[in-house]
Amino acid sequence: MDAIRLHAFGPPENLALDQVPDPVPGPNEVRVAVRAHGVHLLDTTLRRGEAGGPLPLPDLPTIPGREIAGVVDAVGPGVDAAWRGRRVAAHLGARPDGGGYARLAVVPVEALHRVPAHVTAPDALAMIGTGRTAVGILDLAELTAEDVVVVTAAAGGLGTLLVQAAAATGARVVGLAGGPVKAALVRSLAEVSGPQVTRVTARPDTADGARVLSGPPSTGVTSHPDSERGTLTAIDYRADGWLDAARTAVGPSGATVLLDGVGGDAGTDAASLVRDGGRLVLFGWSSGAANRAAERPDDGGAGEDVGRDHRKSGGPASTHDVRWAVGPLARPWGDLFALQERALALAADGTWRVITHQVPLAEAARAHRELEERATTGKVVLV
Ligand SMILES: NC(=O)c1ccc[n+]([C@@H]2O[C@H](COP(=O)([O-])OP(=O)(O)OC[C@H]3O[C@@H](n4cnc5c(N)ncnc54)[C@H](OP(=O)(O)O)[C@@H]3O)[C@@H](O)[C@H]2O)c1
């Protein structure tokens, strides 16, 4: 079968398309003909050979990837033959050598999710690692219609789902995205965020150069929170003056919630938009640095999970309710399979519009490069 293998840690070009033997399902396993393979930022970290993340470095050569969607093409001993031909999606486990970037994958039958006929394989795939994380983050964030929610990397895999979900609660949402094209995508999410989001209007670039691609009417933000409830504003946070534009968008009382997977300068600046007592829900550091508004908990470098309401005193975070969601968690989110089921249901019933950035499997190196260069929107999927 075709498989992408990493033979040496290093740049994206080290991902090679190889021919390897077809895997054979053992007892209680099925083999899936994979149509969609998930790519994570963590895959790029492991490819570079950077230790200290939530997963250990793999032995080489390795087939990366931990999420798949496709069709069962063979069943192992003891497995009901009715599985053959079924459309499925699965997480291959929190392992650095998951085997997901391959045309065939062997999966325990209990890890399989059935995928309805109207849900595409890339969309189903996006609900496994990314969708489940979004559901977990949303459980942790406890959003209500009273909230003013700031989302970093709002055009990303998680961001596009979090923006939709936040807007659907009736909250005011400010999505921060890197570049005007990404900001435009975030604006388009208003169209699927439910009847509450009725006041999104285009407004021209602000004088200071920050592009406010959608948001409250051009009369600006008033001091009456109710008047802004249910609006979605997209701001390019790579443009000069974006923080001022974001302050205007959240309003004089400040934001109540930050959903941040970027960290670094952007995430820390975004945290300054949150009023005292607001929630900082932190789930990653794609910038390479933690959010300085809250001390990063020690995740043990091995996926040790960290519970909610992880507060640190002394720093600026002491004025906030900090909720960490890092690592391949079982706690505080509970059963990951159940989170995946919930995410799949949200995609299947059309609650979530799933955005994917699709790249052919043979071009896995390009997918990695684009993800590292911030050139993707939505969930990155190999097809
Ligand atoms: N806690 C968990 O279990 C869990 C699970 C999955 C993912 N995560 C984390 O959640 C975050 C978002 O994940 P995702 O899969 O949805 O990724 P993503 O948002 O689709 O992609 C990462 C985005 O981060 C932003 N970014 C800012 N600085 C960057 C840099 N130096 N290099 C690369 N990207 C940079 C970019 O968006 P802009 O250009 O718009 O800034 C980029 O598109 C990541 O930090 C990820 O590690 C955590």
Q: What does this protein look like?
A:
There is one protein chain. The chain has 383 residues and is an alpha/beta fold. The chain folds into 2 domains: 2-115 and 353-382, Medium-chain alcohol dehydrogenases, catalytic domain (Quinone Oxidoreductase, Chain A, domain 1), CATH 3.90.180.10; 129-324, Rossmann fold, CATH 3.40.50.720. The chain has helices spanning 41-48, 121-141, 157-168, 180-188, 242-250, 264-271, 336-348, 364-372, and strands spanning 2-6, 15-19, 29-38, 67-75, 87-91, 104-108, 113-114, 148-151, 172-177, 212-214, 232-236, 255-260, 274-282, 321-324, 356-359, 379-382. Strands 3, 4, 5, 6, 7, 15 and 16 form a 7-stranded mixed beta sheet that branches. Helix 2 crosses helix 3 and helix 2 (121-141) crosses helix 7 (336-348). The radius of gyration is 21 Å and the shape is globular. The protein starts with a strand and ends with a strand. The model is unreliable at 194-225, 299-317 and 328-332 (pLDDT under 50). NADP nicotinamide-adenine-dinucleotide phosphate (NAP) is lined by residues 40-42, 130, 133, 153, 155-159, 177-178, 182, 261-262, 283-288, 325-327, 329, 372, 374, 376. Residues 40-42, 130, 133, 153, 155-159, 177-178, 182, 261-262, 283-288, 325-327, 329, 372, 374, 376 line the site of NADP nicotinamide-adenine-dinucleotide phosphate (NAP).
